[in-house]
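User: Before I run my own analysis I want an independent prediction to cross-check against. Here's the chain; please return only the structure tokens and, at the end, one sentence I can use as a sanity check.
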Amino acid sequence: MSDILKGLNDEQREAVLHLDGALLILAGAGSGKTKTLTTRLAYLIDEIGIPPSSTLTLTFTNKAASEMRYRALSLIKNNSSLLPLLCTFHKFGLLFLKFNMSYLNRSTNFILLDNDDKKRILKLFNKNIPISMLSSEISRMKNWLITPDEAYIKAQDNIYKNIAKIYASYNKYLLEKNMVDFDDLLLLSYEILDKNLSLCKEVSAKYSYIMVDEYQDTNELQYKILKKLTLEHSNICVVGDDDQSIYGWRGANINNILDFEDNFVDSKIIKLEKNYRSTSQILDVANKLINFNIRRLGKELKSIKGNGKDVELLEFLDERIEAINIANRIRKLLDNGVSASKIAILFRLNALSRSIEDGLNKANIPYRLIGAMRFYERAEIKDILSYFRLVVNPNDDFSFLRIVNRPKRGIGKVTQDKLEQFIQEKQISIYKAINEYKNEIPLQAKHISIITSIFDMINELRETLEDSTIGFLDLFKDSINILDTFENIQDEIDREANIDEFYGFFRDYIIQNPTASLEDFLNDISLNSDDENDINNLISCMSIHSSKGLEFDYLFVIGLEDGFCPIISDNTDIEEERRLGYVAFTRAKNELVLSYVKSRYYKGKRTQLQPSKFLSECGLIGRSINLDKTKGFKNNDLVIHKVFGAGRVISVSDSGRDSKLRINFGGVVRDILSSFVIKA
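Assistant: Structure tokens:
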């Protein structure tokens, strides 16, 4: 046996030895996918003699590409001066365009825009649509190969017709200036390959062995590029896990991996089901949970580590008690010599970090938030706090200048600079300037009026606060929609959850501390958030999305209630929510602790909650799963059928043992017995 194959299990070795034809390595969590992929690359070069320049390995992040390059090169003994091309999709697009932009009658010395440059250009053509929304919609359309003309025809309302027009103007501007944005790196590469058959054949022949990491995260455009690159051969090896596809909201198309056998003829699937990370007990709950998904290729993770501690499920009265108990458990681990870096807390929504942060701070446990700001440092929370500080002290110019245009009121930077210069010359606050020197302020009358109205609102809030703190909160929420400040619709769920969490926390603070003032509340927050931690030894707190690819010896997953995990709304993809639960559970190596509470802030109010349906599905609580899956259907229930996919119940009638459901599957109405669908 070749030395390069030593240390591989049977399935990994089979994947490495597979040479010709399309191959999907269905790699479960912790099954050694990176080891398999890099070993296969080294095997092709060292043992088979494939020139390194004839291989192309694609992944999604620079970090992943760097790690894979390091691991692959440490295995490769070939002394060739040529190195295999191992990079991100977008780096490949950049290299391709540098050599082939002339096929579009454009110069190869194009300028690549960053995201800020893109937004500045979009502002030239747009006055009304939030720039972040406009930018993300244009990005989405490019990645689905939708042209401006097609976007205009498909537009359902005037906003999207306007977006299509701006999209066309933006593209024209980039063409005239010989600029490309991040999405163009792939879109223009595809257009060149699509329109030039001989070049497409040449490039496909050049890269005779193609490998792709994290294939479940590819989007439509990336899939179409891969089809072009395999025009002359079918030697594509992709590694992925349909059960870990959690980026549908970002454009990832799970059908790319589910339909791999249909998309690439004579393909083969090898399943990596041996898990080297987690104990049998952890994998048992993960396997049970994900088995409830209908749209999956199917695999069963098996632990190489063997038995460990049972998965623990904790129930608490509320999030404060949950945070205290988890902090105490972590303190015991730390006192017993466990390194903080081996401990993590996960949550579905970033808003849930607020109570956990408070609990860790009070226990003096150092932590870091990965992929998110600390709760009180988030922009929407700082905006609310600035308003509150202004109510307490209307002479707080720092807070006023933060919120004067949040949400937007037409007070731009030039106006603010003039106002700041005036108060500095007079050595007075803005509040005093408006009350005593209004006629001297060198601003337009409309701006003076806007600033005056802000202070009028602040005064009204202060008067209400004197009578009732809860009344003050209700008036504040009615008067100021903090969410209107922000443009990025992709962040809206998290921001809204953060705002609701804050309002609920403030409401409970007042109820529990009836003699406390608004100033007391603000001071308590400042004390809790003023924390200098030793950055070298911290426990990790993060959303489940941020945890992908990581692993921890001791893992706590909080917030396992219906409404939080899974999120429940009309747009919820319950199978993706279930995949998020699966990803969370499989981050744990030795011990997994899950928790839920009886009540938590939900939409700004303390609400009685039900344990997550996922807890019954994975066998940790005794809710009758069969009943949940097939009985008790009502109109408007979202359901899933193994063939027809997701649909919505429009009527229910009895039919012997089962109910007969009339279901709308994306416009096609069918009568289906209830035992053949499950609730989403």
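Sanity check: The longest helix spans residues 445-467.
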